[in-house]
Design goal:
Elements (H helix, E strand, L loop, with lengths): L4 H12 L3 H8 L5 E2 L2 E2 L12 H18 L8 E5 L5 H14 L4 E3 L8 H9 L3 E5 L7
Parallel strand pairs: 3-4, 3-5
Antiparallel strand pairs: 1-2
Length: about 140
């Protein structure tokens, strides 16, 4: 969190105001990947959606793909995002995590609706797809 000034400031404010219970809630558990992917409120801490948790989840998926599907890695990953707050930024962070692991990325240059990502995965025969959206509705 130290690299993101906004989340660092948020944690420091909680610390400085003595909000130990809130700090514990945010820092003692990690956000869980479920059926619909990562879901949670945007805030500082390991249990929330923020730059750090997006990067870590992307690194984890990249590692999984390389460890279990290494022969398919050249097919790359499709990454899309919607127009909601932080979606484009989170998508860029995810893309950088895959690129850093040597996995090619096909990135939608602007907002996309959710179904375009699985369509692109199938059409381009990509290894995986990531859709960054705040929506709880898939399309």
């Amino acid at each position: 969190m130290a690299r993101d000034p906004a989340t660092r400031s948020e944690i420091e404010q909680l610390r400085d105001s003595g909000q130990a219970a809130e700090l514990e809630k945010r820092l003692q558990k990690r956000i869980q990947f479920g059926t619909a992917g990562l879901r949670g409120r945007m805030a500082a801490g390991f249990s929330c959606m923020n730059s750090l948790t997006v990067i870590q989840a992307s690194q984890g998926l990249a590692k999984y793909l390389k460890d279990f599907h290494s022969e398919l890695v050249p097919r790359g990953v499709i990454i899309g995002h919607d127009a909601r707050h932080n979606s484009a930024r989170f998508a860029i962070l995810a893309a950088n995590a895959f690129i850093a692991q040597g996995i090619p990325v096909w990135f939608f240059s602007g907002p996309a609706v959710t179904p375009t990502v699985p369509f692109a995965v199938t059409d381009m025969r990509a290894l995986a797809g990531v859709m960054v959206t705040a929506s709880h509705v898939s399309f």
